[in-house]
Amino acid sequence: MVESRKPRFFYGYIVAAACFAIQGIGVGTFISFGVFFTPLLVEFGWSRTILSGASSAAFLLTGSLGILVGNLNDKVGPRKIMAVTGFFFGLGYLLMSQLGAIWQLYLFYGVVVGLGYSPVDVIALTTTARWFIRKRGVMTGIVKVGTGAGQLVMPLLASMFIADYGWRNAYIIIGALVLVLIISIGQLLRRDPGQMGLLPDGNEKTAASKVDVREGGLSFRQASRTRQFWTICAVNLIVVYCSLTILVHIVPHAMDIGIPAIKAAGILSMIGGVSMVGRLLTGIAIDKIGNKKSMIICFLLVIGSFLWLRVAKELWMLYLFAVVYGVAHGGFFTVISPIVAELFGISSHGFLFGIVVFSGTVGGAIGPLLAGYIFDITESYQLVFLILLGFSITGLILTSFLRPVLREV
Predict the structure, then answer these.
(1) How many CA atoms lie within 13 A of 123 on its CB side?
(2) What does each C-alpha distance from 179 to 20, 89, 176 come to in angstroms?
(3) Domain count for the chain
(4) What residue numbers bound the domain in which 110 lies?
(5) Which of 45, 56, 226, 280 is the most exposed place for a label (fewest CB within 10 A)?
């Protein structure tokens, strides 16, 4: 029989705080690409398809490497991975300050930044899932609040740096901060509580023990034979397709209809700020009503927001869109890791979640690129918004058909 006692302080809260910071810095910096969109258009005269393609390339590489990162994290842990992450992420932004040609855009941002960004979600969410079971929903929500904080702060900082120092110096400042902070904070992580003689949620081991066998789970081979696994992959593809399209193109869209640059960047920051509430509320909801119902609520909110976006023509209307969409946006990225853990267990969570993240990456790579191409042809985002609405309705239908995975424990 396993005896356990509560330690005076549970190191899992330090891990969660570190994951919060990594999410904020990493995701907030990555989505700030939309703020640099217009200065790069003005400087080089490239099409939106070309600029969107660099973001799509980075995101596709991120998801491809996410599978490898998840597998490595299952085996060697997060600290070495985060050191490499911080180096490439910061280096990519430093190199962007020297941008002068399209091939450099795709190398510096599409490859180097993509390499650096790839572990941010997988490491933070898989590590959190290993440290918490009973509080997994709310702790994942808190960690994902970090993403919202980053989305609130980083676009505004990037916009101010660009206004005060120019876009090249803005890239230098952000790159240096990212390099130092992600490497430093990443060293606080530990793969799982077993490395410190603890059990999840804060129980200290006092005898040779194993975590509850229900927290074992399916291998990739077993999970890949289930309809649920591929349904989750399809749902995440839809979610990230929509989210990356909005994050990359909402600022250019706002400026196209006459909104000043700083106020347009504020829409992106509003999404990030409100998403913090969505992440926290969804984390609480997960522990109370379950993952599936939480995801359905998010889809209903995002469908409503896309209906509104098609008629939004003024600043206040876009800010209202940002509020409603922001809640759903935050909720989606909170629920996806716990729902993978719920359906397939935790033993191969890093690898399985990496594949789910990759499926989202495919959507995230296609979405901004296709939106830029559609705009270049039609000189409007209306068809883009209609596609987002259709995809969201499809995601709602797929989620409603999710059923528990039947397996022997």
Answers:
(1) 38
(2) 17, 7, 5
(3) 1
(4) 7-196+216-400
(5) 45
